[in-house]
UniProtKB/TrEMBL annotation:
Protein name as catalogued: SET domain-containing protein
Organism classification: Eukaryota, Fungi, Dikarya, Ascomycota, Pezizomycotina
Keyword Metal-binding: yes
Key words of the record: Chromosome, Metal-binding, Methyltransferase, S-adenosyl-L-methionine, Transferase, Zinc
A GO MF term: zinc ion binding
Signal sequence, start to end: none
BP term (GO), one: methylation
Organism: Aspergillus ruber (strain CBS 135680)
Ranges annotated as biased composition (Polar residues): 16-27, 97-110
Residue ranges occupied by any SET domain in the UniProt entry: 332-458
Annotated region (Disordered), positions in chain: 1-110
Length: 511
């Protein structure tokens, strides 16, 4: 017995093409389509398994899946179906046994409920409807997550657990700094800056500082940047003295000058000092033999310990004069490098001629009293001393001292040697100020490129018969044999004539 649940079929269609239409309808429901390869089976009462074929759909009374299928397939004719209740399963056992039963089969006990093919009209609608077409972007909607899990739960949970952050970007307040969860890295404050980055920044800053130095380039040796990490942040290069409180430069009107005109005559220029027992001028410079445009110290002057008086701003020749070597500035390139055992040192990538001006020692100019305090502090902290006494012409407690520790020039990196290749000479460009002058370094001999530049920090210790006084870093005791002080800075110059120490520790003056 066949029960038409829909009453929506025309009998001819139902007879001839029931399977085709139903199949195409379900084939677009991959989750529900009872494909032939996956037939639903249930045990018939008192007989073998009975298959429910793909084109014949029976409403099951004891299977939720089949129940669902039934409702689904009758969607379009639910009104009619609701008018005709299902037969009670207890009265008539269900048999699904292949194609539409023949009249003979009707005589059997079972009742087959066949879902008929849709009417032509319905079929047209189904075929024309969008969702029957094969569409790879087709997505199921409205289906229970119980059977078809989606990630909607996770999405909802994420939204609920971590609502969108609305934090004022006030990173000065540490509590406002977001702690990112589930992202690539921690929040900014927890991000450790790699050492290289910090170091690179300091090296960059140091190079910027180097570039501010006037004259030929001053560079930092390759590979030694890392050593400068601490130093770079606390040091500035300067191009002139920094006059500090308590230092009074003599007014310009007190300065002297010559009236030689555009070109000074070395035999009569009044700027030049005279020999002690004659009117002969002491001429400090001459042209280099291999480079006439370059002025170097005369061999005679190199033997002296005397101040160089260059022409001043009050001279008629101004700076074009041959007698203004130091004022014209540095002519050699310099390189700061790490010595390994004596901290940083200085060298030049250029060969340097004998008597050639190299650089001036610069720094803060402070009164001696201030220098004494700074020196005590330095001794108790880092041990390095950058104090250079301006005590060449006067010998009292009223002198000025140059401190190159925090502000200075490349010459600040020159180390001590007991067999130096450079020396410091005092140079006056004012003639009127006995307490303020330049500390200029000249080479004592020809220096090949890339040789460390050194000078004697305590020249007075060896010049025991000298009549002139000298000063150095830490000061040298005039005309005295240096005694070894076990607490003094040990000299590491490595020269054969090494005196063993930089200067005696009991030094309190700046000489
Ligand atoms: C004017 S600084 C020279 C630059 C210093 N090396 C630096 O790294 O800044 C003087 C200091 O360098 C060190 N120094 C210079 N010459 C030295 C030497 N021959 N032996 C041992 N230490 C020396 C001493 O610590 C001294 O106080």
């Amino acid at each position: 017995m066949v029960i038409d649940l829909t009453r929506d079929s025309d009998s001819d269609e139902q007879q001839h093409q029931p399977q085709k239409t139903i199949h195409s309808f379900f084939s677009n429901l991959p989750h529900r389509s009872p494909s032939s390869s996956n037939q639903l089976k249930r045990k018939n009462r008192g007989s073998e398994d009975t298959s429910v074929s793909s084109h014949r759909f029976s409403p099951a009374v004891n299977g939720s899946a089949n129940h669902n299928n039934y409702n689904y397939s009758n969607k379009s004719s639910s009104t009619n179906a609701s008018k005709k209740p299902f037969p009670a399963p207890e009265q008539e056992p269900l048999i699904s046994n292949g194609p539409t039963p023949s009249p003979e089969t009707q005589q059997q006990k079972a009742i087959s409920v066949v879902i008929p093919s849709p009417s032509q009209q319905l079929r047209r609608e189904i075929l024309n409807s969008e969702w029957t077409r094969v569409d790879t972007s087709f997505k199921l909607t409205g289906i229970s997550e119980k059977y078809y899990p989606t990630d909607a739960y996770e999405k909802r949970a994420q939204k609920g657990a971590y609502p969108a952050r609305k934090i004022k970007k006030d990173y000065n307040n540490r509590s406002n700094i977001p702690l990112e969860i589930g992202q690539t890295g921690p929040s900014p404050i927890l991000t450790a800056q790699p050492y290289t980055t910090v170091h690179q920044q300091l090296a960059k800053s140091f190079l910027r500082k180097l570039s501010k130095i006037q004259g030929p380039p001053v560079t930092l040796a390759r590979g030694d940047e890392r050593m400068l990490t601490d130093f770079a942040a606390n040091f500035e290069f300067i191009n002139t003295y920094k006059i500090r409180k308590g230092v009074q430069p003599v007014p310009e009107s007190f300065n002297g000058g010559c009236d030689c005109g555009p070109g000074c005559d070395p035999r009569r220029c009044t700027c030049l000092s005279e020999e002690e027992h004659s009117d002969d001028k002491i001429v400090p410079y001459r042209a280099a033999t291999d480079k006439p445009g370059l002025m170097v110290l005369t061999p005679d002057f190199m033997k002296r310990t005397s101040m160089i008086y260059e022409c001043s701003s009050r001279c008629g020749c101004r700076r074009k004069c041959w007698n203004s070597v130091v004022q014209k500035g540095r002519t050699v390139r310099l390189e700061i490098f790490h010595t390994g055992d004596r901290g940083f040192g200085l060298r030049s990538p250029d060969p340097i001629r004998r008597g050639q001006f190299i650089d001036c020692y610069l720094g803060e100019v402070i009164p001696k009293k201030t220098a004494d305090v700074r020196e005590d502090l330095a001794a108790s902290t880092h041990g390095h001393s950058y104090l250079f006494g301006l005590d060449f012409l006067i010998d009292d407690d009223d002198i000025y001292v140059v401190d190159g520790q925090k502000l200075g020039s490349p010459a600040r990196f020159m180390n001590h040697s007991c067999n130096p290749n450079c020396r410091m000479l005092p140079v006056s460009r004012t003639h009127g100020d006995e307490r303020l002058y330049d500390l200029a370094f000249f080479s004592l001999r020809s220096i090949p490129a890339n040789t460390e530049l050194t000078f004697d920090y305590n020249p007075g210790a060896v010049r025991t018969n000298s009549t002139a006084s000298g000063s150095g870093v830490g000061g040298g005791a005039k005309g005295q044999k240096e005694k070894i002080d076990p607490s003094a800075v040990k000299c590491l110059c490595g020269e054969k004539n090494c005196r063993g120490q930089l200067w005696p520790n009991q030094r309190k003056g700046t000489k």
